[in-house]
Amino acid sequence: MSEFSIIDRYCHGVGKAQPETSIGVGDDAAVMTVPAGMQLAVSMDTMVEGVHFFEGTDPADIAAKLIAVNVSDMAAMGAAPKWATLALTIPQHEEPWLAEFSQSLDSAARRFDIELVGGDTTCGPLTLSVNIMGLLPIGKALTRHGAKPGDEVYVSNTLGDAALGLAVASGETDIDPRYRDVVLSALNRPEPQLALGQGLLELASACLDVSDGLVGDLQHIAQQSDVSIEVDVALLPLSDAYHDFIKRGGDLVKALSGGDDYQLAFCCPSDKHLTLAQLADDLSIQLTKIGRVRRSKKPRVSLIRNGKPFKLNDAAGFQHF
Ligand code: ADP
Ligand code: MG
């Protein structure tokens, strides 16, 4: 199969056509109109076989996650995704693989109202890169630099499930069989918090998506906002699966520093807590206050439990949940 028939068969008509697209797949470049009053948010995420997913991973899972992780970056900015381009590097032209990948890419893109407007197709070690573009009202983007002393720190849903899924998938951790599907789906089919990001536009002072682990990611907000962030580990929102993992002797490391959760962590002035509770209710999601922003000469993230400093290795054997 030639490069051109691959593009024609598997990359044309993927996702949901957008009215602002003048030229999509097929020309030297795509051309889109940014509506008046809006700004373009652009981001890119790459997935490499053997690095971001195991060899032999279901192509439908790869495509769904590829879209999800990119949409998650839009969510973190409060942007509405609209367009994507795809750099597809595949070792050989395997039709069933491409068909499954393309079908899943199409349904994931449609779900989030994204049109695939272009890309590049090459032969090499399996690598998938998406460049996503979205729209935002001018000047309203959620950033990492707006956190203020006194703000409260929140996180959506639960943390550590994807890391638990990775440990289960790699045979490192045993888990009660009834939780297996939940944690594997957290790993393979993350759910980007798109509606939450847009709901936070007039509320949050700073926001990001938790892709590399809560503590490391909050460090970016601390540094860029020039503040310290104090997280109370007793407040971390954990799933039933994670509670069970702790009951069996597991610790909090995966919840604090495991990656791939794609929840939003954000800071908010304390007088907004009722509005946040309403938003959580409207979106049927969980929002948990996990800490506070403090003034600081040296920006950092600190952990406490019961008012005392908490060290990550104290987490071992911690059974209070
Ligand atoms: P050029 O040689 O001008 O860079 P290509 O031959 O690489 O163009 O691509 C032809 C058209 O197909 C372009 O519009 C490009 O954006 C699109 N395209 C190529 N690969 C992909 C892909 N993986 N997904 C979506 N569109 C693609
Ligand atoms: Mg060209």
Secondary structure elements and their pairing?
Layout (H helix, E strand, L loop, with lengths): L2 H9 L9 E3 L7 E2 L5 E11 L10 H19 L2 E11 L4 H17 L3 E9 L3 E11 L14 E5 L4 H9 L7 H12 L5 H6 L6 E5 L3 H12 L2 E5 L7 H8 L5 H5 L5 E6 L4 H11 L3 E8 L6 E5 L2 E2 L12
Parallel strand pairs: 4-5, 9-12
Antiparallel strand pairs: 1-2, 3-6, 4-6, 7-10, 7-11, 8-10, 9-11, 12-13
Helix pairs in contact: 2-3, 4-5
The structure holds adenosine-5'-diphosphate and magnesium ion.
Would you kindly provide a written description of the structure presented here, covering whatever features stand out?
With 321 residues, the protein is α+β, with helices and mostly antiparallel strands. The chain contains ten helices and 13 strands. It has helices at 3-11, 59-77, 95-111, 161-169, 177-188, 194-199, 214-225, 240-247, 253-257, 273-283; strands spanning 21-23, 31-32, 38-48, 80-90, 115-123, 127-137, 152-156, 206-210, 228-232, 263-268, 287-294, 301-305, 308-309. It has a seven-stranded mixed β-sheet. Strands 3-6-4-5 form a four-stranded mixed β-sheet. The chain is globular and about 65 Å long. The termini are far apart. Mean pLDDT is 95; it is low at 314-321. The protein binds adenosine-5'-diphosphate and magnesium ion. The site of adenosine-5'-diphosphate has 13 residues, from helix 1, strand 4 and strand 5.
Short description:
With 321 residues, the protein is of the alpha+beta class. Helix content is 34%, strand content 26%. The protein has ten helices and 13 strands.
